[in-house]
Amino acid sequence: MNLKQMEKKRNIIQVYAIIVNVVAVITFIIAATSFISAIIDRSDPLYGGYTQIDLSSFDKYKMDVLKSTTKDAAYIPTDEAISNMYDAAKTDKINKVMHDTFRTMVVSGVVIGIAVILFGFHWWIARKYERIEVA
Fold first, then answer.
1. What is the rounded CA–CA span in Å between residue 125 and residue 61?
2. Domain assignments of the chain as residue spans, ordered by start
3. Does residue 17 contact residue 123 with C-beta atoms inside 8 Å?
4. Other residues' Cβ atoms within 10 Å of the Cβ of residue 133
5. Distance between CA atoms of 122 and 129, rounded to whole angstroms?
6. How confident is the model at residue 70, as a pLDDT?
7. Distant-in-sequence contacts of 22-25, Cβ < 8 A, 24+ apart
8. Count of other CB atoms within 10 angstroms of residue 64
9. What pLDDT shows up at residue 72?
10. Average per-residue pLDDT for the chain
């Protein structure tokens, strides 16, 4: 292999390593954002995630339930029934957010780990080929 070919190969390897490092950094930032969002949602699961039902208080929930019943409805739930529905909806919401945040944290953590490993390895490759002097 002549000097020009070796130089070209070295440049290609360095460009490849730099591109992989840039992609790893972008991936790390995106995964870290998801991870941090999951931690915040997990700290207050009642307000985390997305839902159409307002579970911030029993009174708001009760008003939503009563608004959803029509005037001609044969059954209007009692306060005790609405309270049981609220507790069930609240528990379901908390369980769902806890599950979703755990899944997001695990997936984001794995992606962050892979990005760090790829970055480290390709940084090492770029530095190795930068130090090689073509004689």
1. 59
2. 3-131
3. yes
4. 6
5. 11
6. 66
7. 23/118, 24/115, 24/116, 24/118, 24/119, 24/122, 25/115, 25/119
8. 15
9. 60
10. 86
At 12, the amino acid letter reads: I
Q: Which of 93, 90, 61 is nearest to 77 (CA)?
A: 61
| C-alpha span between 106 and 43 (Å, rounded) | 16
Q: Is the pLDDT of residue 50 over 50?
A: yes
Q: What is the pLDDT of residue 132?
A: 63
Please, which pLDDT band fits residue 133 given cuts at 50, 70 and 90? low
* Confidence grade of residue 135 (pLDDT, cut at 50, 70, 90): very low
- Give 75's pLDDT tier (boundaries 50, 70, 90): confident
Exposure string (b/e) for 2-39, b if CB count within 10 Å is 16 or more?
A: eeeeeeeebeebbeebeebbeebeebbeebeebbeebe
Phi and psi at residue 23, to the nearest 5° = -65, -40
Distance, in Å, from the CA atom of 42 to the CA atom of 65, rounded to the nearest integer, reads 27
pLDDT above 90 (res 127): no
